[in-house]
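Late entry, written up from scratch paper. The run itself happened at the end of the previous shift, but nothing got recorded in the book at the time, so transcribing now.
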Amino acid sequence: MIRAVSFDVWNTLLSLDAMFTVFTRGLSEVIGAPLDRVREALLSSYREAKSARRMGRIEENPVTYSQKLLASRLGVEHDDVKRGAARALLYVDKELLFPDTLPALEKLRSKGFTLGVVGNTLFWPGSYTRFILEKLGLGHFLKVQLYADEVGVSKPDKRIFLRFCSAVSVDPGEAVHVGDGVVEDVAGALSASMRAIRIDRGAQRRIVVKEIGLAVVKSLEELPEVLEELV
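Output as recorded:
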């Protein structure tokens, strides 16, 4: 029986590209640099920071690491990047929401599932993501929100997934994690003995492999049916 569902945030519930757009705007206004230069530095810093995280090379807070990396690329101070991240919150709106997010959360809650977030963090802290989810009307669906910079562990480390299961009082076998990342989300959840569902909005069709507790969906609105198929 599946009792709880955890979600990745960026590119699962909310658009990372849209968030990068508002982050770029906020930082550009703080440092007075052209939008295209800030965007290019942000994307290259993101690729490098994400790779370093996967390789286990980040020894400090991942938000601090990525902010310093971006500051170095732009030739500005770390505090400038922090201010840019804060300023970006002024421009957050419903453009960040995927069309299938709210209907999916409503359906799952109506069916009695406990919902939450297990999220990695780069460039802005988990507290900002928590604020964004509240601002966009999603916070009340989520009983627990765990972010890497707050708990000290990043996906795909199984400990952050097990922390979620403990927080909502379920065994790993009673929980499913939904995310877009093959490594961070799918591999991480499976390593914690949870089931895993990958959201791939470009997929041609739904795939369910019950034997290993894995599925691929092209819309979050497929989740209620897929959760039944995985049991």
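The longest strand covers residues 114-119.
(Scratch paper discarded after transcription.)
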